[in-house]
Amino acid sequence: MCLSVPAAIAQGPGAPPQASSQFPIASDVRVAGDARQTRFVLDLDRKVELRAFTLADPYRVVVDLPQVTFQLRDGAGDTKRGLIKAFRYGLVMAGGSRLVFDLSGPAKIEKAHVVDAANGQPARLVLELGAVDRTTFVQQLSAESRPQLRPAISPVTPVETTAATPAALNANAATGGAKPDNRPVIVIDPGHGGIDHGTEAASGELEKTLVLDFAKGLRDRIEKSGKYRVVMTRSDDTFVPLGERVKIARNQTAALFVSIHADALPRGDSSAQGATIYTLSERASDAEAERLAELENKADAIAGYNLTEEPTDVADILIELTQRETKTFSNRFARMLMSEMRGVARMHKHPLKSAGFKVLKAPDVPSVLLELGYVSNKDDLRLLVSESWRSRTVGSVAQAVEAFLGKRVVNATGN
Ligand SMILES: [Zn+2]
After folding, report:
1. 226 C-alpha vs ligand 1 centroid, how far in Å?
2. For residue 267, which phi and psi values (nearest 5 degrees)?
3. CA 198 / ligand 1 centre spacing (Å)
4. Domains plus CATH for the chain?
5. What predicted TM-score, i.e. pTM, was given to this entire model?
6. What is the Å distance from ligand 1's center to 213 Cα?
7. What span, in angstroms and rounded, lies between the C-alpha atoms of 278 and 327?
8. CA–CA separation, 265 and 54 (whole Å)
9. pLDDT tens for residues 297-310?
10. What spacing in Å lies between the alpha carbon of 235 and ligand 1's midpoint?
11. What is the whole-number distance in angstroms between the Cα of residue 199 and the centre of ligand 1?
12. Which of 247, 324, 358, 389 is the S-S candidate for 383 at Cβ 3.0 to 4.6 Å?
């Protein structure tokens, strides 16, 4: 038997030592037990406060913590044991981290606390789950989470605007002669973030990072002209719920909303390639679009949001009319985007599709969702990480924005 140890393993899988330990560090994780009782332990370098609660449909347990730096081994979250099917961890807001556990069935939180370091052991977060029947689960659910159906997360504010003057936000206020910023607003929406990584390439690249880089490039390019104000739904690695993204577009009375994503296909299927532009429709244009919308709409569940908290649809003839008009504009922009992108980027063989994406549901803001390509496809991934591809593609999207908004202004003024 060969006993030589590869150098990489001998050194241990640990990340390089943190220069600053401003935030508590989670260094290791263990799961033990069976389908009746499961115990989860997270090693921490100091004690923290926590709040734990359950969510239904699908069954989940959420643990909210102050911001924690996770230094867990790769794949730690895939640990499947007892009541825990898998778990995720990461930022859900500045200053707030979260663990979300997918459960194999209804369970009760028997213990959730952090114990002090003692006897050479570090401080530990201990979560103990016990199996219960669905009725018990639902009863506990209403008892424990009623005061905060919405997790204790501060409201999301638009993170970055080119001209975030008070005058721009409140054009009616006569604030010392400051000129209101009447430029059309474009909301750029990098998908996922924080605890929700989105898709992941076999080589480890994450959708949330790829699309943020792209979105920042696009913001810079559009801002260059000085004709538009750009608002990002996120400009760092933070989770933003789908409804908040829509709200940002509506609150800004945006002229256009562009959501940026990168798709992936199940392992083994790497045939699909190229960029696809999606618009909103009640019925999906094909099975592929339906699969994708389902996946993208899961973002809130992944981050431990309660899905019962849906906005109520208002049946109103005015809203219907607005929606119809918005749809026409969304489709028009999608076609313009396709013709601009076609020249510089690789497109999917059916580049225009539609499905029920939650993030595209602002009734009064033309909205499209751009899937830049497939991280599961080697050639697409090569492009997605390439500086020159990004620059070219960003240029073509900015061109389409100019073509679309320029045209709208012309139409509106009758010239
Ligand atoms: Zn996505």
Report:
1. 29
2. -45, 140
3. 5
4. 22-145 (2.60.40.3500), 160-171+181-306+314-413 (3.40.630.40)
5. 0.75
6. 14
7. 12
8. 30
9. 988 888 887 655 44
10. 16
11. 7
12. 389
